[in-house]
Amino acid sequence: MPRKKKTTEERVLEQAVKHWTSHKTGTDSKRIAATLKLDHEEVKKAMLNLEAAGLATLNKDETLNEMSFGKDGMSFTPVVCHIIFPSKTVLTENFYKSDLVRQNLPVYEERVMKGSHTYSFAYFNEEVLRKYLTRPDLFDVSDTVSGGHVRYMGEDEALYVEIRHGRRKLASGRSAITVFVTDLLKMHEAEQRYWHGYEITDPVFAEEDNGFADFLDVNLEGKWISYKDPVTEAVEAIKRTNERLGVEIFRRTENDLLHAPVENTERAYCDSCGELYKLIGNDSLNIKVLKPYLVANFGADHSEFEHKESKRPLTGLQLLELIQNKAGTGDDALKTIKSIGEDRGRAAHATTFKGDPDKIYIDMFRDQCMKLRTALDSFSEKVVEAVAKTKDGEP
User: Fold this and answer.
1) CB neighbours of 209 closer than 8 A, spacing ≥ 6?
2) How many Å from the N-terminal Cα to the C-terminal Cα in the chain?
3) Which residues pair with 285 in a beta bridge?
4) Confidence of residue 104 (pLDDT cuts 50, 70, 90)
5) Three-state DSSP state, 3
6) Would you state the pLDDT for residue 13?
7) Paired residues of 64 in beta bridges
């Protein structure tokens, strides 16, 4: 019995599937017409029939430039084409019928072979970033309110990661790490499995999300937007305080382990407060700088640098309070530092963390960072003003 001749639609779809499996993208009607030696308009009509049957989707009437070479050199001729994308059903069926099913493809490679677009998103639990944030020697990580990046800095191909990630708010108030599938495809198979273990399969998103809108504008629209980054802003405020006062009252202005919590737990929140406190607490405040600063700018007496009763020397925080009082800055900076220190202390002494499922600890930490930035900026500005008045002989 003679083999049934394939219809034009079947031949066009076959070429579209072949192109998808080799290039992971759609193909145009002009290319298929040339391959099958068919009339271009016939192929376009077949594509419309395939779309009507639910076997493909089309980007219709796209203008492409056909390149040709002649005696006058290279030239381009505009051609109106349809771009065809086989449906997930068609590609999934092809996957199981073809040799692809026996190739043990990495998880996201397999997903694309079954029809997921390379520039679609996959969503992950925030904890997926922990592995990278805790190894600043191996990974360069930026993680802001809108998103950031993860880049491997070593030479082991099995650990290679270079992704742009977004943060998309969930209806629960938490956020999901959002990654383009095309970036996941570049990872080693083991690294893809690691990410897959944190994937959120059916995320429910918040209705309004300005941070994620910024991520889309930057990565899909090409806009230049600076993401909101409370952690970095807090660190920059610490540096500005040193710069404005003209002395390094904070000895430490960098901490590679400082980042927003990657788990929505009280423990993770307290740990992040601990890393931040390393930059602003007694271990960072420079007593050898604070005392001369008080003497030179506020006429402090050395007797003020010890407790009246115990005669014990003042700590860095107590010297900071002395500057605060003499400059009349208000107590926001010291209150914020102490608050962060208290939260850090809970991690050091607690034997259990019950937490609160209704709290978003990641947002709480970012709020602390923003409070610290505002408080330090106000403190340093007012100290500079007070010093200027003192030098001008004003009371």
Assistant:
1) 168, 169
2) 109
3) 250
4) very high
5) coil
6) 96
7) 79
Mean pLDDT of 367-391: 94
- Encoded tokens for 193: 């499995």
HEC letters along 53-113: CCCEEEEEEEEEEEEEEECCEEEEEEEEEEEEEECHHHHHHHHHHCHHHHCCCCHHHHHHH
In the 8-state DSSP scheme, what is residue 362? H
CA-angle at 93, arms to 90 and 97, nearest 5°: 135
Out of 191-200, 217-226, 271-280, pick the least confident.
217-226
Q: Encode burial over 55-92: b for 16+ CB neighbours within 10 A, e otherwise.
A: bbbbeeeeebeeeeeeeeeeeeeeeebbbbbbbeebbe
Are 305 and 313 in contact, with CB atoms under 8 Å apart? yes
H or E stretch covering 178 = strand 175-180
Q: Quick check: helix, strand or coil at residue 243?
A: helix
Report the alpha-carbon distance of residue 265 to residue 280 in Å, rounded: 23
Reported as a pLDDT band with limits 50, 70 and 90, residue 351 is: low
| 79-103: pLDDT as tens digits | 899 999 999 999 999 999 999 999 9
**Is the confidence at residue 213, as pLDDT, over 80?**
yes
Residue ranges covered by each domain of the chain: 8-97, 104-219, 230-391
Quick check: 178 and 146 in contact, CB under 8 A?
A: no
Q: pLDDT-derived band of residue 393, with 50, 70 and 90 as boundaries?
A: low
Contact assessment for residue 339 and residue 346, using Cβ atoms and an 8 Å cutoff: no
Please state, in angstroms and rounded to a whole number, the distance separating the CA atoms of residues 77 and 119: 29
Report the topology of domain 8-97: Arc Repressor Mutant, subunit A (1.10.10)
Radius of gyration, alpha carbons of the chain: 30
Residue type, 230: P
Contact indicator for 194, 125 with CB cutoff of 8 Å: no
> What local confidence, expressed as pLDDT, does residue 308 receive?
82
Q: DSSP secondary-structure letter at 206?
A: -
Q: Which residues contact 360 (CB under 8 A, 6 or more apart)?
A: 173, 174, 264
* Total residue count of the chain as it appears in this document: 395
Distance CA 391, CA 301 (A): 17
